[in-house]
Amino acid sequence: QMADPFLYDTGERSQYGCLGHEVQIEHIKAYVCRPSFFTDKAVIVIHDIFGWLFPDIRYIVDLIAGHGYITICPDFFKGTDPWKTTDHWADFADWMKHHDPMKVDKEADVVLKYLKEQCGAKKIGIVGFSWGGMAVHHLMLKNPQLAAGVSLYGRIVRDSEERYNLLNPTFFIFGEKDHTISYDQITLLEEKLKQYCKVAYKIKVYPGQVHGFAQLKPEDMKPDDKPYIEEARKDMIDWIKMFI
């Protein structure tokens, strides 16, 4: 049985009034938020196990858009059910088999095409949380169209050495008290990237933070965590701004 990766009660998060709108792109729905001025820079946001409708992820989309990027969160679950707070963790491994974060390439291609052809995007980055963090790590090894990536607390899957040969700059964010990712895994990631990676990368661990910390809305933050959450978000935006 897997431990519940969220130490915050996701069922009791505050609601969020979104600033963007929903679109249909080929076989997937997506949530899009645009800045008030024209830009040819875009960021794809990959949701966690709670899916593209989850208020926290839409808050992040709006936040990134506020920094001057066309920001889009597609439904990478393609209309199937996301994980729900009422589901049992004993079933999680089985659920994951049908929601593989390494099988996101087709959807990413559809969204990249939309951003370029419909939105006029010339430079595109990607940010992902938890399940989405794993997907970002995967895509940064496969898709040269993504100019920069930020992977937030995505479990590190050790399948081969090429797992560390990133195509473009990638920033890995972790919480010190994330019990889904061991410190050994982070150390190994650092060693392997040093060995194999030929592009810019960064790894940062935020003190005292649990899994899922960086996507909390201000009213859901605990006062002790707030400075670290805000720092992680600023670091995320700064990384994007450096390359996109």
Automatic annotation (TrEMBL):
What InterPro entries does this protein map onto?
A: AB_hydrolase_fold, CMBL, Dienelactn_hydro
Tell me where in this chain the Dienelactone hydrolase domain is found: 28-242
* Any Pfam family: DLH
Database matches in Gene3D superfamilies: alpha/beta hydrolase
Q: Which GO terms describe its molecular function?
A: hydrolase activity
Compartment(s) of residence = Cytoplasm, Cytosol
Task: List the GO terms this entry assigns under cellular component, sorted alphabetically.
Answer: cytosol
Family the UniProt entry places it in = Belongs to the dienelactone hydrolase family.
Q: Which PANTHER family match?
A: CARBOXYMETHYLENEBUTENOLIDASE HOMOLOG
**Protein's UniProt name:** Carboxymethylenebutenolidase homolog
Q: What is the lineage of its organism?
A: Eukaryota, Metazoa, Chordata, Craniata, Vertebrata
Q: Gene name, please?
A: Cmbl_0
